[in-house]
Design goal:
alpha+beta, Uridine Diphospho-n-acetylenolpyruvylglucosamine Reductase, domain 2, Uridine Diphospho-n-acetylenolpyruvylglucosamine Reductase, domain 3, Alpha-Beta Plaits, 5 domains, 7-stranded antiparallel β-sheet, 5-stranded antiparallel β-sheet, 18 helices, 22 strands, Vanillyl_alc_oxidase_C-sub2, FAD, FAD-linked_OxidoTrans_Type4, flavoprotein
């Protein structure tokens, strides 16, 4: 494995049989998986370039079992890696050799639907699309829609603050989660938020937990906001002779004050791969394609469609096609949703990146990625959330060819460095995990990272939850909390100290 992970504890490895027996007493039956062949299914997540067998896999089905497993691991200094559906693309659920892999897939029930308060209470193993399926018969839906929504779980969405094609207008997971129940590493069950719209007074701990990548606690219940389906939704395909022109069109649409329900962009390799796979009706003679969806009252949608078409034409669009039926609109999105597996048909392997940039920098970054593609001699297909600047370059490589994985990793690192250099960030929705962990100093100074780790210490002083992820260098909590004394004087001596 080309990424360094924490050195496994020999003391834990030596006690494996004892640990497995203790966990079997907490989660009986088939809830503990310890055979090597059976654990292979859990050795990686969506970032399949990296693999590691866990010490043992535990699949609890009650909150009490989760609590007891975590409390046992805390008492015995055993690392724990929480896992949902395993669709993470940043290695966030990569197991540890000396760690328990805590899998929440049995928590798969919709517990309550409250249409009056426009909310649903679900267990973390419910799929993203499963929430919409549970409420769509009443004209409601759950807005965040990652491309993996048919498989990814809502608990994983909370851990990574997942997005999707319709998050430009309706927000990320953080904007659609009202409350959670979670279990601390000590086994304490806690609740944050609820069905009410706004957080309670004090620190926004719900916001802190959303996107915490399994480093602070294990989510066991989620209360989400559900929305009424808009009266009308229509999508338009706009093709351009260059990616730069498509990028300029995106910037102008937003500058005009138009906020589409979704606005996605694909370049020629992605367009052809998706069209071959899905036959969505995409034009093949363009270098870049925008999918722009407008939703709301019909009169508003009709007006905005005309505005968007005009903006596309002023930016050199060579084709423009508006959906004429719900089936056609769904087909437009089916191609985009299937873009990742479609690209998998044209390359033995691909590395999916995730960086976010200011929209105005889109043409510059696309040109930069083209130059990097030539530098590393690897193809790249671009599929991304153009409206909010969240890029998903797919670097095509063959892991069976010597050195290609390493070149793909370096290519991806340079893309992320470019994103930060133009004022962007390392991740928009996939999380840091192990993939971007060693790039954190590109974006944060040492003091920034230490302050983030102090938050980690407040929740998990022993660093047992998902160690080896997010932070390139992990400091012990005692080091982070120590007071510096110079020549007998502490800093700011007039401040009261407790």
């Amino acid at each position: 494995m080309s990424v360094a992970m924490p050195k496994p504890s020999e003391a834990v490895l030596d006690r494996r049989d004892e640990i497995v027996s203790a966990l079997q007493a907490i989660v009986p039956g088939e809830g503990v998986v310890d055979a090597t062949d059976e654990m292979r299914a859990f050795e990686t997540d969506g970032l399949t370039a990296y693999r590691q067998l866990p010490l043992v896999v535990v699949l609890p089905d009650t909150v009490d079992q989760v609590s007891r497993v975590l409390a046992y691991c805390h008492r015995n200094d055993i690392p724990v890696v929480p896992r949902g559906a395993g669709t993470s693309l940043s290695g966030g659920a990569l197991p540890l050799q000396d760690g328990v892999l805590l899998v929440l897939s049995k928590f798969n029930r919709v517990l309550e639907i409250d249409y009056d308060n426009r909310s649903a209470v679900v267990q973390p193993g419910v799929t993203n699309l499963g929430i919409t399926k549970a409420v769509e018969h009443r004209g409601f839906y759950y807005a965040p829609d990652p491309s993996s929504q048919i498989a990814c779980s809502i608990g994983g969405n909370v851990a990574e603050n997942s997005g999707g094609v319709h998050c430009l207008k309706y927000g990320l997971t953080a904007n659609n989660v009202l409350g959670i129940e979670f279990v601390t590493i000590e086994g304490e069950v806690m609740r944050l938020g609820g069905k009410h719209l706004d957080a309670e007074g004090g620190y926004d701990l719900l916001g802190l937990m959303t996107g915490s990548e399994g480093l602070l606690g294990v989510v066991t219940e989620v209360t989400v906001r559900i929305l009424q389906k808009p009266e009308t939704a229509r999508a338009v395909l706009i093709g351009f002779p260059t990616s730069e022109q498509a990028g300029e069109c995106v910037a102008e649409i937003i500058a005009k004050g138009i906020i589409p329900g979704g606005m996605e962009m694909m370049d020629r390799p992605a367009i052809h791969a998706a069209e071959d796979f899905v036959q969505a009706g995409y034009p093949r003679d363009v270098e870049a394609l925008l999918i722009v969806e407008l939703d709301g009252p019909q009169a508003e949608v009709d007006h905005l469609l005309a505005e968007v078409e005009a903006i596309g034409n002023t930016n050199g669009a060579v084709t423009c096609r508006v959906s004429q039926s719900e089936d056609e609109r769904a087909a437009f999105w089916a191609g985009r949703k299937a873009a990742f597996p479609a690209v998998g048909r044209i390359s033995p392997d691909y590395y999916c990146m995730d960086g976010t940039i200011p929209r105005k920098e889109l043409p510059k970054v696309l040109a930069g990625m083209k130059a990097l593609s030539e530098k590393y001699d690897l193809r790249v297909a671009n599929v991304f959330h153009a409206g909010d600047g969240n890029l998903h370059p797919l670097i095509l490589y063959d892991a069976n060819k010597e050195g290609e994985l390493h070149r793909a990793e370096e290519f991806g690192n340079d893309i992320l460095r470019l994103c930060v250099a133009v004022g962007g960030v390392l991740t928009g929705e996939h999380g840091v995990g192990v993939e971007k962990r060693d790039l954190m100093p590109e974006m944060f100074g040492e003091d920034d990272l230490k302050h983030q780790q102090r938050v980690k210490c407040a929740f998990d002083a022993k660093h047992l939850l998902n160690p080896g992820k997010v932070f390139p260098t992990l400091h012990r909590c005692a080091e982070l909390g120590r007071m510096h004394v110079h020549k007998g004087q502490v800093a700011f001596p007039d401040l009261p100290r407790f």
